[in-house]
Fold this protein.
Amino acid sequence: MSRPAPHDPAQTPTQSPTPFGSPDSLSGSEPRNWLPWAIAAAVIVLAAIFLVVANRKGGQTATGPDPYAANVVFSGLHLSQATNFAGDQLTYVEGTVTNKGNRTVTALTARVVFGNDEGEPPQIQEVTVSLIRAREPYVDTVPVSASPLKPGASQDFRLTFDSISPMWNQQIPAVSVASVQTAR
């Protein structure tokens, strides 16, 4: 049995890497692949078109709230606070919501403006209105979609906030209709 000859590094030809940008690397010996560049250009063009279209839609004048919103009235507002199991302070705005119109309200979002002592709103928030289904043994709420508000009906509601600006003056915030959906 013969043994393999020992490897002599001096006899092995070495090839040093060609530095990037050297004339050898740009000689054109390999064809350039333009596909990645074409894909990148197409993505950039599509993103630009998307931004132009999005800005046009965002720049249009809003038509205002749904005219039916005038038929939905919040009254009897009061505040309460509680601490949840995680130790976070929760603030509740409760009251009664009345549908004075002739359609059934199927979804409702409130715009809540928390004021400060300077008469400015340090926080404005839009929240989904939850209707109170039961108060004992605990307050149980459901979305308006689960218990639609029929024409002429009133129902107690609750809005829940887990963080409010420390600039808030602790007074009852202003509550109005941000959006309303009705069944025809």
About this structure: Strands lie at 72-83, 89-99, 104-114, 123-128, 130-134, 140-143, 154-161, 174-183. The longest strand covers residues 72-83. The CA atoms of residues 8 and 14 lie 12 Å apart. The longest helix spans residues 35-59.
